[in-house]
């Protein structure tokens, strides 16, 4: 008899998976490799930035007080006593009516309290000495880039669990982090099941298709912050699949399979979970595509049984695998970022289940538009190429019209969100 599965709500399914969140250990890597990893320690400013008062312009360092009476008809003259570029420090102490020629980034000399831009000065020579004059007064503090104005010593600049952007790489370099403590990537084993599957390099023959899911999952794993390990593709053979899954789960942090989770004669995953004695968290979710997505727990590890249908597999990964990976790398924002967009095209199918329509996001006149792409069918692969958002259409609704406001989940966003988007789809 065919097993009857009870669908659970998407939010409940996401929450069930997240109850198994665990946090990975840290590792130390070279700064150059830190981009796109997650910080395992707070990034603290161990010195002020800039570390000394410096000139923000190419110009002259002066004592502002001496310029008080400078006017167009009363230029004030300064003797140029030294010249410094960035990286050099003047040994002189500025006196009244003395100036030091200084370049952007150079430490300001002792006695200086204002910088005059080169463009506002006239420079000349008299009796073998160099002078400059100015025709307007300056105040103490004019044009100074003060020590600590960028960051103060002891400040937490970036919290642990933050995704390392190019800007954070710059901060790490600023504070001398040749090595960076990041969270180890979780290993994600991937097995594709299906007797119809050919490898990518193989010629098509009747009844067979190329395995695309495992490659897609590898890329999704990388995007989410995990380290994919392709274990291989297996024919629909119960014992072989069982052995491979049992063996593989020991070697990875999470195991993903695609295919074989539905009710077909050769859909062996349900029987494999049973043989393993794994606890099924759910095996049917009130969503489309990906309703057959199954998640099971075995010896403290999660097995994600994603659908064989490419679109369903893709959705299953983003909704259930991505947040667990983000939690593992200590992200305080493990959830997909939700936004509201204008629907770019009619979507008239009524929705008994919450639907995750693959969409393409564009920005026109400052507004977000999300347009469904390709055929909205679970077994379609071509729509995935353009998809950069899911358009979330709640269950129990009629169709949607172009121009309606819809919720979207951003797939290319790396920051994430600290609140679960699923909370709004109770
Ligand atoms: N009687 C029923 N039939 C089906 C049901 C149902 O409730 N009752 N659910 C349908 C839904 S919804 C989905 S989704 C699929 C899920 O199927 P499986 O997860 O069991 O996956 P398979 O049967 O192995 O394959 C489905 C489909 O996907 C292709 N596939 C599989 N692996 C790959 C791969 N690595 N790369 C590319 N394509 C792959 C496979 O050839 C099949 O066409 O079940 C429905 N049926
Ligand atoms: O799980 Mo199936 O993908 O709902 O379409
Ligand atoms: Mg099947």
UniProtKB/TrEMBL annotation:
Function per UniProt: Catalyzes the insertion of molybdate into adenylated molybdopterin with the concomitant release of AMP.
E.C. code: 2.10.1.1
Alphabetized SMART domains for the sequence: MoCF_biosynth (SM00852)
Cofactor(s) recorded in Swiss-Prot or TrEMBL: Mg(2+)
Species whose genome carries this gene: Metabacillus malikii
Keywords: Magnesium, Metal-binding, Molybdenum, Molybdenum cofactor biosynthesis, Transferase
Name of this chain's protein: Molybdopterin molybdenumtransferase
EC category name: transferase
Domain (MoaB/Mog) ranges: 189-327
Pathway the protein takes part in: Cofactor biosynthesis; molybdopterin biosynthesis
Keyword Translocase carried by entry: no
Catalytic activity, reaction form: adenylyl-molybdopterin + molybdate = Mo-molybdopterin + AMP + H(+)
Domain of life where this protein originates: Bacteria
One Gene Ontology MF term: molybdopterin molybdotransferase activity
Record-stated family: Belongs to the MoeA family.
Record Pfam families: MoCF_biosynth, MoeA_C, MoeA_N
């Amino acid at each position: 008899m065919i097993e009857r599965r009870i669908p659970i709500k998407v939010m409940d399914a996401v929450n069930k998976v997240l109850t198994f969140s665990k946090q990975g250990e840290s590792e130390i890597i070279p700064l150059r490799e830190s981009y796109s990893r997650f910080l395992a320690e707070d990034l603290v400013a161990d010195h002020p930035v800039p570390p000394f008062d410096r000139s923000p312009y190419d110009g002259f360092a002066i004592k502002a007080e001496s310029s008080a009476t400078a006017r167009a008809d009363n230029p004030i003259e300064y003797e140029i006593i030294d010249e410094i570029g960035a990286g050099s420090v003047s040994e002189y102490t500025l006196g009244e009516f003395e100036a030091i020629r200084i370049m952007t980034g150079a430490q300001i000399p002792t006695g200086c309290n204002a910088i005059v831009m080169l463009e506002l000065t006239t420079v000349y020579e008299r009796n073998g000495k160099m002078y400059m004059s100015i025709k307007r007064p300056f105040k103490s503090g004019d044009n100074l880039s003060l020590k600590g104005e960028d960051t103060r010593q002891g400040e937490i600049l970036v919290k642990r669990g933050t995704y390392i952007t190019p800007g954070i790489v710059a901060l790490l370099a600023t504070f001398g982090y040749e090595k960076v403590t990041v969270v180890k990537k979780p290993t994600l084993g991937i097995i594709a099941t299906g007797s119809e599957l050919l490898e990518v390099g193989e010629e098509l023959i009747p009844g067979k298709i190329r395995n695309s899911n495992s490659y897609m999952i590898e890329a999704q794993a990388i995007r989410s912050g995990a380290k994919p390990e392709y274990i291989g593709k297996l024919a629909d053979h119960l014992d072989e699949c069982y052995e491979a899954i049992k063996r593989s789960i020991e070697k990875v942090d999470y195991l993903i399979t695609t295919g074989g989770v539905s009710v077909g004669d050769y859909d062996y995953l349900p029987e494999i979970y049973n043989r393993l004695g794994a606890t099924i968290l759910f095996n049917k979710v009130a969503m489309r595509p990906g309703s057959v997505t199954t998640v099971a727990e075995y010896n403290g590890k999660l097995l994600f049984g994603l659908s064989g249908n490419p679109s369903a597999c893709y959705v299953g990964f983003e909704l259930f695998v991505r947040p667990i990976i983000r939690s593992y790398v200590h992200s305080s924002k493990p959830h997909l970022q939700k936004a509201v967009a204008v629907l770019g095209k009619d979507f008239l199918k009524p929705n008994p289940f919450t639907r995750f329509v693959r969409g393409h996001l564009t920005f026109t006149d400052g507004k977000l538009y999300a347009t469904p792409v390709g055929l909205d069918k679970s077994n379609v692969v071509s729509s995935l190429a353009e998809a950069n958002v899911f358009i979330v259409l709640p269950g129990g609704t009629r169709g949607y019209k172009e121009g309606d406001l819809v919720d979207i989940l951003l797939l290319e966003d790396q920051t994430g969100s600290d609140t679960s988007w699923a909370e709004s789809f109770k």
